[in-house]
Structures are given as structure tokens and as C-alpha cells.
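Molecular record:
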Amino acid sequence: QRACGRSVNRGCSSIFFPVSTLYSHVCGYARGYQYGHMDALKSSSMTIDDTYVDGISVTRGRPRKHLWTLAVGEWEDPDNSDGCPRDQSPFDFSRIPNFVTNQHFHCETGMVKYTGGVAWSDPLWDGAGCVADTAHSC
């Protein structure tokens, strides 16, 4: 199987979609596959211009405004600090930057236990194959 992605160097890859007219909705679909170790969200002290997420950040305008964050956790374990923060009590708000609202955030992992490699069998952000049945994290 094959997939495309950013370089293996740390940092970001960006794509811009120039829009010459006003719009009221942003629609799209992202399919990702977990490769290796992911940290989901880094820290609540990050800004929108920092590398705050392992995953996809959808923004608009200049300066950038947050629309949606699709994060990737290491594996499905609520006690794993590199996993997805859970929608259960206690919810781990400490890793969610203040510009990311709970309604515009989803976190998923492709691995039940960390195995390395590519998790081809469980595409990200589709809600399928989740151990935890929560609104924003699985």
C-alpha cells in the first residue's frame, strides 16, 4: 500500500487554497494513516503558529484563525500521556491550546497498542475501530 505525506524531518508542511470570494462554510475530508510515534497535542501554552499537534490543523485568514484540529494519539490507552485527551472525567484540558475549542477538535489513533510502522488497518478520523466511545477522542 502507498500513501503520501510530509517529509520525515520535524516541522510542518502546508497547503494553501486561495479563495477570491466570500464563503460561509469550509468542507473537506481527510484520511490519514498513523506512522510511528505520535503525541496528539503538545501543550496548552502553544500558539496557532507553533507545531502544536501531530495531525492536521485547518485554519483560515491572516493572521491565522483556527477552524478545526484533527490530532493523532500514540495508541488507545487513556493513561498514555501521548494519547488522545479523553472526553471522560477527568478530561485532560492541560494539553489543549486555548484557541482549540472542544467542538472543533477530534483525536484518534490507528493503534490499540504501539507497534510502529504504518497502521493501514485503521484509517484515522473516521470514528471506526475505536476502543473508547467518546465524542472527540478515540
Observations:
- Residues 28 and 58 are 10 Å apart (CA to CA).
- The longest strand covers residues 65-72.
